[in-house]
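Hey, I was hoping to borrow your eyes for a little while. There's a protein on my desk that I can't quite get my head around. The fold is given in discrete form, as structure tokens running alongside the sequence. I'd be grateful if you could look everything over and explain what you see. Here's the protein in full, and shout if anything looks odd to you:
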Amino acid sequence: MDDVRFAVLGTGGIGRRTLEVSQHKDGLTAVAACDRNGVAVNHGGLDVDELLEATEGNIASGPQGGPEQSSGDEPRDSEPRDDVATDGGAAAATEGVKQHGDQAGVVASEQGRPTETPIDDVIAESDAIDAVLIALPNLEHDFIPRVAERFAEADYEGVLVDVLKRSRVIGMLDDREEQLTESGITFVCGAGATPGFLTGAAALAAQSFVEVEEVEIWWGVGLKSGYEDNRGTVREDIAHLDGYDIETAREMSEAEIEELIDDHDGVLEFHDMEHADDVLLERAGICDAEDVHVGGVLDVRSDEKPTTTTVSVTGTTFDGETGTNTFQLDDVTSMEANVNGPALGYLKAGVRNNRAGHYGVFGPADLMPGF
């Protein structure tokens, strides 16, 4: 497989880890990265170490409607709109965030330059980009589908990969499949840990059965870098707590989120999450979406996982026996290893399929990641 040139949209926690992990994957060269304030492009390959050092603890932010700031992974549109949410939400502040250089984010790097249109700037370079990882929180349900539309409208021919979490977004991508196919785009959706890594594990575990009765995914995540460097991920997870939804989580201030975290001593527990594993397993013919249950525990103050990540698939074999196949992740494997490793593996699988002329929308159970 020839070298894969890829770009990352968003340099918050997920985007930064993607760049870091890519240095340990053969055949991958990062050639572009952007966030709200800037873009860095080098077709010969970015100096990833310099970019990571310059942006460490440094969340891109910019004014949006007055003193309140919007922060984090999501680049602004060329024409900002009120319905486009950002990593930090509509009312997020950057108080307490370490800054490097005169401005935040990519522009703090020697390779970066400021721009008002970061996504458009990456699209303008897309003829030389094989794949794009969309490392943006989906705090507006149709945001990532709209980003995909923009690449299709620019006649991009290549791979788009995301690590989205919400079930309903898959349908929004399916609605755009004809447009993506006509452009020559292979879109791999939900390609992180869950959905993604664990979706694929469930699909493999299901092969023992002729009928799957239930899939249970229970995850544990310890954020060694804490809430500050994972604002978008934590905010999106809060939307799954009892009494919260994506709208209320988006509108919470940083102080309100810190208070919620304090009230739970840094440990948040989730049950019956609206995670895209359900529809992705259904579309792969594994089981009905209603038979998939996802929950987990997030500890934002500890390096260690609060619980072992486990996938359990219960079903009936051809000879009438009922059994449960279980897959576990080792507790020492970090979130970045289990999210960004698979994401880059699925990116490679997407490139192989794209070069073979396979276009459209694919889930993680449809493609196995490349090593």
Notes: The CA atoms of residues 226 and 301 lie 6 Å apart. The two ends are 11 Å apart (CA to CA). The longest helix spans residues 335-355.
